[in-house]
Design brief:
Elements lengths: L19 H5 L16 E6 L4 E3 L5 E2 L4 E12 L2 E9 L6 E7 L4 E6 L1 E3 L27 H34 L2 H32 L6 E3 L4 H32 L7 H18 L13 E4 L2
Antiparallel strand pairs: 1-4, 2-3, 2-8, 4-5, 5-6, 6-7, 9-10
Helix pairs in contact: 4-5
This protein binds zinc ion.
């Protein structure tokens, strides 16, 4: 029996025994390989159909399994043909079944009879399905052939041909003059590159002038944006003009002795307004150089 675990006995010598199986003097396939020198491997073979044993004439059902001697008996083109030799389990008789690659079947070659239960189309008014010889094929149905031809022709005229022409025209347009296409694309790209570089230069200058973060992304300049920004700026200014004096007034009123002069109050209000104005730069600075900030440059 071949080894089934990884136990290496003390006298095991890897130089002498290349494997545990060779140490035990066994084949890796075990007892199934005992006839390998005759070209026979013993496999489990299952009957593909019902048979009658040639020795005891007993009926043996499909699916009964045997320890069959498998050997190669020939080839169909490059596909090997195998024969399975089995011993009847009811008597001492042997029978043999071979593969038939040509018809993708199994055939009983000796020692038994196959019970023929296959559906035979020829027997039932049809044509053989597994007919490999074209000369033996039944006559073609002329009406079916005609119908098929007509359908194919109509399909070709209405669907295939227009589509092919369409594809041909498209291909012609695309591949007509690759040099001109390439030239046009490169020209366009060159011009676009210049515009983009100029815009980047202007944006960087703007950001540097106002000390803004370098990765801020600026919207492209336009009349509509300018109008919107200056309107927003005006709104913000109006709001602060209303807000800041009232705050100053409140502070003046709540000061303890009331000794602060009106000049001091005015100065305080101006300072407060200026500091607030500087802290909120995002609303825009002046109508001429306004660029609203929308996000971070990626
Ligand atoms: Zn038998």
């Amino acid at each position: 029996m071949q080894g089934f675990n990884k136990y290496y006995p003390p006298d095991y010598d890897p130089a002498k025994h290349s494997s545990l199986n060779s140490y035990r003097g066994k084949h890796a396939l075990g007892d199934r390989a005992r006839k390998l020198n005759q070209g026979i491997l013993i496999v489990r073979f299952e009957l593909p159909y019902n048979i009658w044993c040639g020795g005891c004439n007993a009926h043996i059902g499909m699916g009964v399994r045997y320890n069959a001697e498998k050997r190669k008996v020939g080839s169909y083109y490059t596909t090997p043909i195998f024969a399975f030799r089995c011993k009847c389990h009811l008597c001492d008789h042997w029978f043999e079944i071979q593969t038939d690659p040509k018809n993708t079947r199994y055939v009983v070659t000796e020692g038994a009879r196959q019970k023929n239960e296959d559906w035979d189309p020829a027997e039932n008014g049809g044509f053989a399905v597994h007919e490999n010889d074209p000369s033996k094929a039944g006559p073609a149905d002329p009406l079916a052939a005609l119908e098929k031809t007509q359908t194919a022709e109509t399909h070709t005229k209405t669907v295939v041909a227009p589509r092919l022409e369409q594809l041909q025209a498209h291909a012609d347009r695309i591949r007509a003059d690759p040099y001109a296409h390439s030239q046009r694309v490169r020209k366009h790209f060159r011009a676009e590159k210049k515009v983009e570089a100029e815009r980047r230069r202007q944006d960087d200058a703007f950001l540097a002038r106002y000390g803004l973060a370098e990765d801020l992304k600026l919207e492209p300049d336009s009349e509509a944006l300018r109008a919107a920004a200056s309107k927003e700026l005006q709104t913000e200014r109006d709001r602060r003009r209303d807000e800041v004096p009232s705050l100053a007034t409140i502070r003046t009123r709540t000061s303890s002795a009331g000794s602060s002069s009106s000049a001091a109050a005015n100065l305080k209000a101006t300072l407060l307004r200026n500091s607030l104005g500087k802290s909120r730069i995002s609303a825009g600075l002046s109508s001429s150089s306004t660029k609203p900030l929308v996000g971070r440059r990626s």
